[in-house]
Amino acid sequence: MTEASYLNTTRTDYDAVAVRYAELFANAHREVPLDRAILTAFAELVRVADVGPVADLGCGPGQVTAYFRDLGVTAFGIDLSPTMIALARQAYPDLRFEEGTMTDLDLADGTAGGILSWYSIIHTPPEQLPLVFAEFDRVLAPGGHILLGFFQADDDAPQPAQAFDHKASAAYRWSLNGVAELARKAGFVEVARMVREPGDTERFRQGRLLARKPSRA
Ligand SMILES: C[S@@+](CC[C@H](N)C(=O)[O-])C[C@H]1O[C@@H](n2cnc3c(N)ncnc32)[C@H](O)[C@@H]1O
To answer: Which residue puts its alpha carbon closest to atom 10 of ligand 1?
Structure first.
């Protein structure tokens, strides 16, 4: 399959900023209590369901992957950017990190107990997102959970996705209703959603969607 050109652009863009990104966001996920809360809840759900490890897709420099390890959950990371993967391996040599794309994962069907996309679906062009969700559904085990974190667009905006001037690469913010509807169409069952107001250094509301893949009957 030929690779979509946006993937190459995203890869090149993140290779260029990876070192700075790793410095800036080393602890971001730990600093906001509401973000810790949903990441921790997701980790607990994955641990209790016990159907496989967390695949941190678009893991960047691996700091959130390592957070799951700290929470007692097996996790590994996949990212488009070889520089991000090199930084993650250097920082967390005990964890597994691989180059790859969430549009075509090198993972067997139904083998992940959890899928995390923490600010990585934001770089997928809106018309491609259903394909990404189908790939998430393919690799997630029945009974597994998925957590999506993204910049939120207003639910009453004319389109569910809006392009914005992200500092690293072309990106889109999404209405929670829009993401939830796509997740539902991909077969996931909504568990919870969260909207938090922007912090001092943030421009947008932050959306989180937690969903699960039904267990086999
Ligand atoms: C904003 S960063 C988020 C990194 C990390 N999840 C975090 O929270 O710090 C977005 C990351 O997603 C990766 N990414 C974007 N599209 C991807 C794709 N299709 N497959 C894998 N990684 C992707 C980028 O290379 C980048 O490292």
So the answer is: 120
